[in-house]
Each structure stands twice: as structure tokens, then as C-alpha cells.
Amino acid sequence: MMLNGIEPAVGDSTSEGILISDEMIEGAQQFVDKVRSIAERHDAMGRVRLEERVEMRGIHHVMFGTSDASIDLLELCGEWHMIDYKFGHRAVSPFENLQLAAYFYGECERLQLTDEQIDNAKVFFHIVQPRCFYNRPASQTWETTGKELRKLWAKMKESALDAITHELSARPKVGPWCRDCPGRRACPTLRTNAGANIDWINRSWPTEMPLDAAGLELKFVEAALAQLEAHASGLREQVQHGIEAGQHCPDWAMSPQPGRGKHWLVPPEDIFALGDCLGADLRKKQEPVTPNQAIDLLKKAVKGFDASLIEEYAKPNPGSVKLIARTDTLAHRVFGAK
SS3 sequence, the chain? Predict the structure, then answer.
């Protein structure tokens, strides 16, 4: 919407029925700024492809995806930029990113680029992730070439061929992809592997290890944690669905959680008038700032400002319902944590 000149407002609803928040707008603005900074350097906004389906039939006959933004600058400067937006917290790296590599493969296939055009293309993978709380910038870039990406494409083709050839007999393979697999709650391979990891973790280990052994051990532990988390997330969904359907689970319950932030109860004009009266500008373009931002601005403008005044104009956002471990069972009272 924003890249097409539409200014969404806090409280508007998307086509999927999701209410737009101030945090969503601020995050999207970073993606918009990234796309524009690349395209406008070459006066090439007209070359930006947004949210368009890309097929990769050369990798797998039913493989496709929808790239967030793709900018073809091959004719102008020999570059191609793939920009992907991540609103989640899990860190995603552009380095050898298979998702973006697949998108670029699809673009090459769509345009029927020659081998020479592909090999000589300077390719840039950009990940814009404003809510990743690791010690890293919100926008990261990896520069490579079409020739180097052929290694990743070969890897994908090999995996696709293996899946097609052995689709009736092959056993599933555990890995990072299990975290987002919709079938993980009922996957016997993941369950078996998770059980093996639990047994392995419960063994006793020497307190001191050589550095190379400790490094290798850490690699195994990190992989085991990822697989256990994938298994746990599938079980959470199953347990939550059962409780919401009215079934009883002795160890888990659904608990309401407080919401984050507040939203305005009065029209923007009343908020603007309040700020003008107290000497603070509460405008952000055509919309008011958030209630918490308004409190910060009013505290700077008015010495000893009483934040309870805002409670007459705003109320907390509704919270969510979260799955939590029950602490009222006999087993927990006997064996539970202190």
C-alpha cells in the first residue's frame, strides 16, 4: 500500500482483516525506504515488481513463491536486487538465502535470460527485519553473482529430485525447516528425534572439554534445541486447539494476557487540540501519535504532567490468550518448581 502511494492509518483493516498498528507502519516504512533508495538511485521505480508470483519450474514443476520486491537493473547497471521483508523476531540472514535464491531463479526463468546474462549479473539479497532483537542492523545485504548462485540452485534441484524419486519410500529429514512445517505435531520422525535429544541431554558430561570438542558439542546442542523447539511448537498448537475446542488438559490452560500499548477513544481533532492547549504537537502526518508517545511529548512540554489525563482519551489495547502450564494440579504441588 505504502509503495503504491496509499497511506494506511492506525486502526485501518488490511484485506486479510488484520488491524494496522503503529508498529506495523513504522516497520513497513523501513522496507519502503530500502526499496526506494535502490530504485531511485537509477530512476527505476517503474522496474520494481511488488508481491508478484514467481515460478521455478526448473527446480520443481510445482514450485512457486511470491517475492516482496524485485528490481531488475540489468540493462542499466548489470544489477538485480531482491528485497524481502520479515516482521518476525527470528533472525533471518541474506547470506546464501535459499528463498531469495529461488526467487531470482524464477525471475531468470521468466525472462529467459541467457547463461551469460545470469553469470555476469551482480545480485543483491536484502533482508529488512525491523523487529529482530539480536545485535544486528534492521537491514542486511549480501552481494553475489548469478554464477555463484548456481551452487544453491543445484542443491535445491538435488533435493527436489530426491523428493520426487522417493516420495513413497523416503523418510522425512529433521532440520530447521521443521519449525514451520504444518505437519510437525504428527510427524513420527520429529517425535523420535526429539526423544533421542532429550535422552542425550540428560546424560552426564565432563565439566571441562577441549575447545574443539566444546565447539562441536555446541553445534550439536544448537541443532537439538532447534528440533526440540519445532516439536514443542507443534505440541503447543495441538494442546491449544484441543483446549479451545472444550477438551480438558490437566497440565495446561489458556490464560488471558494484558495487551501492549493503548489506542485513542476520541477523534484525532480532540487529540490535536489537547496537545496544542498544552504546548505539544501530537500530530504525525495526518494522524495522531500513539497514546504512549503523547505522554512522552507532554511530559517534555509540561513540567509535572499527570499521565492519568491521557486515560480519559485512551484505553489499553485488548490482550491475547496464551497457553500456560497449570500450577494448580496435585502433580505440580508435589513435584513442581519452587
Answer: CCCCCCCCCCCCECCCCCECCHHHHHHHHHHHHHHHHHHHHCCCHHHEEEEEEEECCCCCCCCEEEEEEEEEEHHHHCEEEEEEECCCCCCCCCCCCHHHHHHHHHHHHHHCCCHHHHHHCEEEEEEECCCCCCCCCCEEEEEEEHHHHHHHHHHHHHHHHHHHHCCCCCCCCCCHHHHHCCCHHHCHHHHHHHHHHHHHHCCCCCCCCCHHHHHHHHHHHHHHHHHHHHHHHHHHHHHHHHHHCCCCCCCEEEEECCCCCEEECCCHHHHHHHHHHHCCCCEECCEECCHHHHHHHHHHHCCCCCHHHHHHCEEECCCCEEEEECCCCHHHHHHCCC
